[in-house]
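Final report, results section. Input specification for complex C-07:
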Amino acid sequence: VERGFDCDVLIAGGGVVGCAIARELTLFDLRVTLLEAGPDIGAGTSKANTALLHTGFDAKPGTLEAELVVRGYEQLGRYAERVGIPVERSGALLVAWSEEQLGSLPSIVEQSHANGYEPIRELSAEELYRREPHLGSGALGALEVPDEGIICPFTTPLAFATEAVLAGCELRRGVAVTSLERLADGGLLVRAGAREWRTRYFVNAAGLRSDELDHMLGHDGFTVTPRRGELIVFDKLSRRLVSHIVLAVPTKITKGVLIAPTVFGNVMLGPTAEDVERKDDTSSTAAGLDYLRAEGGRIMPALLEQEVTAVYVGLRAATEHTDYQVSIHADEGYVCVGGIRSTGLSGSMAIAEHVRGLLEDAGLTLSPRPGPPVELTMPNIGEAFTRPYTDAERIAADPDYGRIVCFCERVTRGEIRDAFASPIPPVDLDGLRRRTRAHMGRCQGFFCGAELASLLEERA
Amino acid sequence: VSVVVVGGGPAGLAAARELGRLGVPDVVVIERERQAGGIPRHAVHQGFGLRDLRRPLSGPAYGRRLAAFASRAGAELRAETMVTGWSPEGPLELTGPRGRELLEPDTVILASGCRERPRSARLVPGSRPAGVITTGTLQQLVYLKGEHIGGRALVVGAEHVSFSALLTLTHGGAQPVGMTTELARHQSLAAFRAGAAVRFRAPLWTRTRVSAIHGRPRVEEVELTDLDGGGTRSVACETVVFTADWIPDNELAVMGGLELDPATRGPVVDEALRTSRPGVFAVGNLLHGAEQADVAALSGRHAAAAVARFLAGGGWPERRVRIGCRAPLAWVSPTALAGGPPPRARFLVRSREFLRHPRIEIAQDGRPLWSGRLARLVPGRSGRLPDEWTARADPEGGPVTVLVASARG
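Structure output:
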């Protein structure tokens, strides 16, 4: 750390992007601080999205978003396999329901090729229904995108943040930035919570609040208008109905409503897309849910017969610009990482690498962090991989992995204990849910709610 | 192992006890909770055990007694163990502190019970604050964990269990501020409603839907909509209890490839509670959502006799005739005919609407099998249809239909 500074880089925002940046920078010999305003990392926009691992086939060619999503797809795919983030390459089918949509498919193929993604191909209606027999009637054709995937939106930021913390990153949760001040000799004074930090560089990854922090520094590059997305999660018994991500033909305004399996073995329907005023307005609406049910009934009528397990609402940090708003003000030591919308999960690692490059260009010295690299293995909460309750060896070594507490999601006492003992332990039921799947299932606590509440109380 | 009973609630425990009495050896009851006993473990009020044990007991005492009876009858009770996998042909996969285990018994009795639909499954819009729970969670918080709930609470639903939730709330130090039901009247006993009106002074809002829940991090306010006038009112509270709206916990039944009845959402069973899969029986509230615990226990006892006959070489019916119903009826159970008497020599029937003196007609292929009047049907409570007509049904014929020919509302 340079003399007079508390840290080399301070990152505001512990969403998937901020966590990825923290991880990237702690690979080097730097003092990094990560501040998250919410009670937990990954608890804002990052927790309530469609959880797709995009190839970037449909991004606007030539944009920063297209470049970073394409690169981030490869990076996150490899990283997920290495550290145990649940990921499944289910493939996507982009379905045309009208002649007009059918006519637009060739241009989407062209766009995909321009983004460097070649395996995309057209399917006849017959081929489509063979792959997804439960689709509603009337589909005329489709594009197959075999490499699109689904990924765990909870484990991803948690893995980044955990790796960063193990590499020495200072993480503060429940601490919102209240003021930013330029220091005379360069760098910034960041006030947050009851404390202040002097940092050489400041990275604004504050998502929905990124425009506010930008304005605090006198910039006026963009305004965030939260775009609300409501999602319905169906019971695991519906999983057999769907094998691919079923996408709609995008319009200028929206990518439309999709149906996708989740890594937890459910099926998701959504999102809606509605601009709202308040940045904390994560309420579902009767109109939104009605709309989703109508769309779902058209795309896959059998899905609506299934029980609903949960309704989620996320806010995308949309701006007036179509591309990411990533820039560095080298003289101020300020990097802005704003306008990261739905593709932030897929692009996160490439965004982080890009930010690292910007900092390096601005003069930040990057030498490898001394000491051994962090070896990280995240607890698996994905349905496609071995979980403790099916692992005879683990149960034999520790019977707590055989004691199921959350029956719907088969979460064991051992996993809950591990979550509390982890480098970034949960502080509330939502945090425990994101780390273990406890309370995420069809009964929503009818059977296990009281037991989980007392386990939480014991630890808190 | 000759019989595996999945679920150690009243139905499963009563089945295990009866199997012991009938001399069936090697009966194992698999219970995923730490103690057997099922829902009565945390239903701390009187009224359990009247129909089966002929004495009034509290829920916990009833649960303990059934577990002790099953043990004494020779059944092995394996707690903290869950059936986590099954397939249409495969063995039962178990997980417990003893490890993983595969069991391939001669017969399986599914007794996995039911649960209340949570707020999310009811698609109630709004934010997702803490303090939105089901009666099941509420009872466990108050009676098993001794938690203080406090504050004000709204009860959604007006069935027996909803009134029980009122009581539990006061035991948890919370003040009930009202009850809602989408129907025109409550569906419980007049005495319960009158008692609640005096004791809690909590209004009952009928024809009312919970249209939104607001607050963060805990509930602050619930919006109610009048289904007739369309007007809304706002109720300030810190807890919302979603009661009733039961659904069978049918995951294993689906995994095991059992035919499900679309109306009950439980496995299709005949009078002997045999499912579509030879050697597999289903009992209790897995069949149709909540009946009282002693009714579930009697269904377990009933199936045990059929299990014993099956194990003695009794065979499995080749064919069965399905039974269905038409609106406003919600379901009929058992859901198939294959001969013999159903539990308690009756078919249970539920209605979605209040019906006074409904004339019920049972017919097969347009041919009347039975017709008669019931005193009344109340949503959420079962009516009783006799079983005398089943001998007149054609075992080779089409499905049997139960319908309401006439009624007053």
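Helices of chain B lie at 10-21, 59-72, 135-144, 160-171, 190-200, 251-255, 293-314. Chain B touches chain A at residues 32-33, 80, 82, 84-85, 93, 95-100, 115-121, 123, 125-128, 130, 133-134, 136-137, 140-141, 144-145, 147, 211-212, 214, 216-217, 247, 249, 251, 254 (CB under 8 Å). This concludes the modelling results for the funded period.
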